[in-house]
Design a protein that fits this description.
The protein has 401 residues and is of the alpha/beta class. The chain has one domain: TIM Barrel (Alpha-Beta Barrel), CATH 3.20.20.70. Helix content is 37%, strand content 12%. It is built from 15 helices and 14 strands. The chain has an eight-stranded parallel beta barrel, surrounded by six helices. Helix 2 packs parallel to helix 3 and helix 9 crosses helix 10. The longest helix is centred in the middle third of the chain and has 20 residues. The protein is globular, with a radius of gyration of 20 Å.
Length: 401
């Protein structure tokens, strides 16, 4: 595929895109204290739209208070009150001919009671090793059905707000991913055990949503694999992709990893030790002497060194694409125009998405198109990933600022 073909109009799940490069969901930390999107978030999305990105997938928006992220100022979509604020942003982005898709999520056990005001919940009562919390509450059948309805309500609100579609976050160890993985779902009832039972909550969200929103596009972001023992593996992910297509999923974005896996989903050359000490809730309140003494501990905590660090989900996404007829998007360590041309030109996937490159250069697609940039300036330091615990999104370029 030539560069020009990458920048030709394309259709994703019935949504018209300017090109095949998508901004993947990225937590911006630009909501107010109640989860209402701010003017600063609109400005950030307008930068992306003016930068000629093919489509924008928003940072995750919570569907229920007990599933709120521990990261700084998460977006929410758990009441009708949010709709006018989102509609204002959607209308502004649409003025530039850019579609915008809202990602919806419940964080499950990957949160803290200090943030939600409640004990974390999960499919099974298994403690998350990355959060200093007690064992999460195992969800009852009634509570699971409430969460299904919460997702359906949020999808309906997204449609009313004018979004071009929604994306369900079933990756990175959040609640829906917790149901899918045999590592985190040890249930013996209709919500656990077989793959079909573990998938049931997602299918019921799709079936209930279809009754409310008709053909409104519902996409997913899913893990192809993770680093957990007895966790997600590609053969199961391929099977899940087939189930998603049967459920009416409009497109699949392929990622990997859980929070417990560390920097499995956002890889880099070096562990961001300084960023962890400065911004992580585990260390940021400590005095400088204690922080200095904690450096070896942090290095040990971040010792995992997954390889490769570029294009690491492409092979898995290609296997999923061979299983389904709906569009497949790949994310993860993609930063050069040459790699994008290879991925799409050889039909490994239908679209590519990026997160970190758009933090440092929101106009990256325009630069690619004009020939002024062949590769993102992003150095994959991952300071942005850590700092989002304490403040809104920006690039740090490997330095504490």
């Amino acid at each position: 595929m030539t560069d020009n073909q990458i920048f030709e109009p394309a259709v994703l799940a019935g949504i018209k895109l300017k090109n095949r490069i998508i901004r993947s969901a990225t937590h911006e930390g630009l909501a107010d204290g109640n989860g209402i999107p701010t003017e600063a978030l609109k400005i950030k999305y307008l930068q992306l739209a003016k930068g000629e990105v093919g489509a924008i997938i928003t940072g995750y928006a919570g569907i229920r208070q007990n599933g709120k992220s521990p990261n700084y100022q998460m977006l929410m979509m758990d009441t009708e009150d949010y709709i006018p604020f989102y509609r204002d942003i959607v209308d502004a982005v649409h003025e530039h001919g850019t579609p915008i898709i809202q990602q919806l999520a419940h964080c499950g056990r990957q949160t803290r009671s200090k943030v939600t005001g409640e004990k974390p919940v999960a499919p099974s009562a298994i403690r998350d090793k990355m959060f200093l919390e007690e064992v999460p509450k195992e969800l009852s059948d009634h509570e699971i059905r409430d969460i299904i309805n919460n997702f359906i309500d949020a999808i309906d609100r997204s449609k009313k707000a004018g979004f071009d579609g929604v994306q369900l976050h079933i990756a990175h160890g959040y609640l829906l991913a917790q149901f899918l993985s045999p590592y985190s779902n040890r249930r013996k009832d209709q919500w656990g055990g077989s793959m079909e039972n573990r998938y049931r909550i997602i299918d019921e969200i799709f079936q209930g949503a279809r009754k409310r929103v008709g053909s409104f596009p519902i996409l997913v972001k899913m893990n192809a694999y993770d680093g957990r023992k007895n966790g997600m593996r590609i053969d199961e992910a391929v099977h899940i992709a087939g189930l998603l297509e049967k459920s009416g999923c409009a497109a699949i974005e392929v990622s990997c990893g859980t929070i417990e896996d560390g920097f499995y989903a956002s890889r880099g050359e070096k562990a961001p030790v300084d960023a962890v000490l400065e911004y992580s809730y585990l260390f940021r309140e400590l005095n400088p002497v204690i922080k200095f003494m904690a450096r070896p501990l942090v290095r040990f905590m971040l010792r995992s060194d997954p390889k490769p660090i570029y294009n690491y989900n492409v092979a898995a996404a290609q296997q999923i694409k061979e299983r389904v007829s709906i569009p497949v998007i790949v994310v993860g360590g993609i930063k050069s125009l040459e790699d994008i041309a290879d991925i799409i030109g050889t039909q490994k996937t239908d679209f590519v998405s990026m997160c970190r490159p758009f933090i440092i250069e929101p106009n990256l697609v325009k630069k690619f198109k004009e020939g002024t940039r062949k590769e993102s300036r992003c150095i994959h330091c991952n300071y942005c990933s850590i700092a989002q615990e304490a403040q809104s999104l920006r690039c740090y370029y490997g330095k504490i600022k």
